[in-house]
Design a protein that fits this description.
The chain is mainly α. The protein has a single domain, classed as Up-down Bundle (Growth Hormone, Chain: A). The protein has 16 helices and no strands. Helix 11 runs antiparallel to helix 15, helix 14 packs antiparallel against helix 15 and helix 14 packs across helix 16. It comes from Corynebacterium uropygiale. InterPro entries: MFS, MFS_dom, MFS_trans_sf. One of its GO terms (cellular component) is plasma membrane. Keywords: Cell membrane, Membrane, Transmembrane, Transmembrane helix, Transport.
């Protein structure tokens, strides 16, 4: 890829944890995750209310989640390409503002079709943040501090996803679903404005000309890398299973356990286990290696699903806590691992990982809706067990490749 200018001056050093700009960057990425993932999952906790409001089936209401993540997946690669020319920070800020401002229109949709249409636009708008956030961190931070910052960003996405579910469901104890969603949207807009305020100007970015053919082959080169392909597969399977569980657990909470909308919203506090695990997994990786921790987390995801079979609220909550912590540990490891393995065309590598991540959310989430409609809760759990078993296989392949590299290094 030809650069617009020939840069002869060396790049400035990456930001370290002791730098004030590093702290500003971490705050900006945290609020960007809060803003955008609040927007992405704005309707998930409200699916039962949408079913009642528009007189549709649960799988059709779930399209308000699937279309957003589907368009997000499709738009990630173009957003990443644009960031090569116009800068990661600019794309991130425009994306965060557009996506959250669109959230303000969602509560006033007169029909489910209009709501789905707005959510489609929101999927396109929101893509810029996940498309460039990881590349921004990888470029601007010292390599030794990227893992910790990446974990904080992922933690921000978990809290954002939590707020997008918890705030509207809590407000529904006092308001109807429209005003509840509006209140949540206002908080997302405020977080986006904080991102604009805190995000430091990039100093290590060098703009490049956009060559569609080159970008295509750069992305394809990552798909031909077996080690990266395993990480892409883990993103597809893991995110698909995760979103599927959270899409439909609300219906079980309401129909089998008799919980109100507000109490169902508290169930999404299980997200905090993901916030905790993603922020701390880098320390465990330093001790045991990426492959071992990823494989162990995949096994934990699989085992936790077995606790969803009994009709007991306590075991269901425990299953969700373990499942969520394990999933976000895998995501934090895999997303950072892509940046390590993709030594060239790093932005394209990250965008391909995220394409698979959100394609899993959309495609597997939609398929899970069909499964839930056909065979209800226990059939859905069996389907999730299949996905988790495949994820364990992908994690085992990643571990095997890591161990093979370690043996070669010692030889």
């Amino acid at each position: 890829m030809a650069e617009l200018d020939v840069h002869t001056t060396p790049l400035p050093p990456g930001m370290r944890r002791t730098d004030a700009r590093y702290r500003r960057a971490v705050v900006a990425m945290l609020t960007a995750g809060l803003a955008t993932f609040n927007a992405v999952y704005a309707t998930q906790a409200l699916l039962p209310a949408l079913v009642d409001e528009f007189h549709v089936s649960p799988d059709r209401a779930a399209l308000t989640v699937s279309v957003t993540t589907g368009l997000l997946a499709i738009s990630i690669v173009p957003a990443s390409i644009l960031s090569e020319r116009f800068g990661r920070g600019r794309v991130l800020i425009v994306s965060a503002l557009c996506a959250t401002l669109l959230s303000l229109a969602l509560p006033w949709a007169p029909s489910l079709e209009v709501l789905i249409g707005l959510r489609t636009l929101q999927g396109v708008a929101v893509a810029g943040v996940p498309a460039v956030a990881m590349a921004w961190l990888s470029e601007e931070l010292d390599p030794s501090d990227v893992g910790a910052a990446m974990g904080i960003y992922v933690a921000g996405t978990t809290v954002g996803g939590l707020s997008g579910r918890l705030i509207p469901s809590g407000l529904m104890e006092f308001l109807d679903w429209r005003w509840a969603m509006f209140g949540s949207s206002c908080i997302a807009v405020a977080c986006a404005l904080l991102t604009v305020l805190f995000l430091p100007t990039q100093r290590r970015f060098r703009p490049k000309s956009i060559n569609p053919r080159h970008e295509f082959w750069a992305t394809a080169s990552h798909v031909r890398n077996p080690r990266l392909l395993v990480l892409f597969l883990s993103a597809f399977l893991g995110m698909g299973a995760f979103v599927s569980l959270y899409n439909f657990v609300s219906f079980r909470m309401m129909h089998e356990f008799g919980l109100s909308e507000g109490l169902i919203g508290l169930v999404f506090l299980m997200y905090l286990t993901g916030t905790w695990s993603s922020a701390r997994v880098s320390r465990v990786v330093e001790r045991f290696s990426r492959g071992r921790v990823m494989a162990g987390s995949a096994v934990l995801m699989l085992l936790s699903l077995l606790l969803l079979f009994p009709t007991h609220l306590a075991t269901t909550l425990l299953a969700m806590a373990l499942f969520t912590a394990a999933f976000f540990a895998i995501h934090s490891i895999a997303s950072g691992w892509v940046g390590v393995l993709a030594t060239s065309h790093r932005a394209e590598g990250s965008s391909m990982y995220l394409f698979c991540y959100y394609a899993g959310s959309s495609i597997v989430g939609w398929l899970s809706g069909c499964v839930f409609a056909a065979v209800e809760w226990r059939g859905l759990v069996l389907w999730l067990l299949l996905l988790a078993a495949l994820l364990c296989g992908a994690a085992a392949l990643a571990l095997r490749a890591e161990q093979r590299d370690a043996r070669r290094a010692l030889a």
